# Entry
Amino acid sequence: MTIEEVRGDKKRFLPLLLLADEQESMIDRYLDRGTLYVLDDNGIKCVCVVTDEGNGVLEIKNIATVPEHQGKGYGKALIAFVAMKHKGRYSTLQVGTGDSPKTVPFYERCGFVRSHRVKNFFVDHYDHPIHEGGVRLVDMVYLRKSL
# Structure
């Protein structure tokens, strides 16, 4: 298993990025300014985009695993890599996600704790309703962990 930073042509990973953020215009808001990591284990299994949010905060803007490889630890491994790589440069790793029974527990298992929420984020910023795990996403829930 290898994890590499992608420096050019990040859009080639758009199909995978759209699994975690299903509106391309939202991905366009962070992809160019973010750092994209790709986990390869006999083929691409997972991608992650992180951005510097200032004040020592590194934010996971997108993390997506190929559907048939979900639940095998690739996402957790990529988060651990990002945390280790940026420890010392940042004090906090944060992620914003929908209040979903699928994603929030995943981040909590990775050591994140709930921080705050942004009311109506998905209603105000997406051009269509977003559903995950049978739940319509409305608020953005932020979770954080110390690095």
Summary: DSSP finds five helices and nine strands in the chain.
